[in-house]
Amino acid sequence: MSANVPQLSPQARALLPAHVAIIMDGNGRWAKQRNLPRVEGHRHGAESVRAVVRAAGEIGIKYLTLYAFSVENWNRPKEEVDTLMKYLARYLKQEVAELNKYNVRLEAVGQIYRLPEFVQEQLKQTRAALARNHGLTLILALSYGARTEIVEAVRSIAAKASQGALDPAEINEQVIAQHLYTKGIPDPDLLIRTSGEMRVSNFLLWQISYTEFVVTPTLWPDFRKPQFFDALEEYTRRHRRFGGVG
Asked: Which of 4, 25, 103, 230 is catalytic?
């Protein structure tokens, strides 16, 4: 594989996952290693987002979910959170042309109402601008927490049951899935976590029941097309049995 022009093997191209999810971890450590402010890690991490979205769109990935901001991240220093929100709004505005070029559609999951109004408005505008695209669907997990998602789904189902709109005996996996933020989106085939941490950090707990994991020591700001392709190659070497014998 050329270092300058990374390429997927024919096997990987034939066995591409339909849905890739990424826990983008390591921005702060990347900045600390370089004696830079944490926000510089986030700024360089945005370049990785651009590179991975472009690569995913080029090779035919159908869904790409990025864990951009968790419910726990609201507990970070206000200055850092404010900067992240400004970066998010700027990304959503500046990337419209790039995302349109690669036929990318945008969705968001999480407690979107907790985002600042200027971010919510920009998210709305960007989604509208990309709504007619039919290639890669980019899903941003924003103010997202899987336990919160499940709690809200249970509350919604319970409300329908108490009103007589839903028979409790009819509640099954499909009913629960239809009440999650990710309604209508297939479960991830591959979950990539950068920075070497071996945990899922409250991300898509219901949806990743049979997802393949690839953990890389690469910090997110250094994760680009070659590292993405390496993770896809690793995925194609897995034997997914879904509880069967293969």
From this structure: 25
Q: What is the pLDDT of residue 1?
A: 42
Phi-psi region of 23 (alpha: psi -120 to 50; beta: other; left: phi over 0): beta
Active site residue 25: yes
Q: Which of 35, 73, 100, 167 is catalytic?
A: 73
Per the rule left: phi > 0, alpha: psi between -120 and 50, beta: everything else, 195 is left
Give the residue extent of every domain in the chain.
15-145+187-236
Answer yes or no: are the C-beta atoms of 111 and 144 closer than 8 Å.
yes
Q: Are 195 and 29 in contact (CB under 8 A)?
A: yes
Q: Which CATH class is domain 15-145+187-236?
A: alpha beta
In whole angstroms, what is the distance from residue 191 CA to residue 49 CA? 15
Rounded (10°) angle between helices 225-236 and 38-59: 60
pTM for the predicted model, two decimal places: 0.93
Q: Are 203 and 217 in contact (CB under 8 A)?
A: no
Burial 188-219 (b: 16+ CB within 10 A, else e): bbbbbbbbeeeebebbbebbbeebbbbbbebb
pLDDT for 2 beyond 90: no
Give CA–CA dist 182/144, Å, rounded.
Answer: 11
- CA dihedral angle for residue 205, residue 211, residue 212, residue 214, rounded to 10 degrees: -40
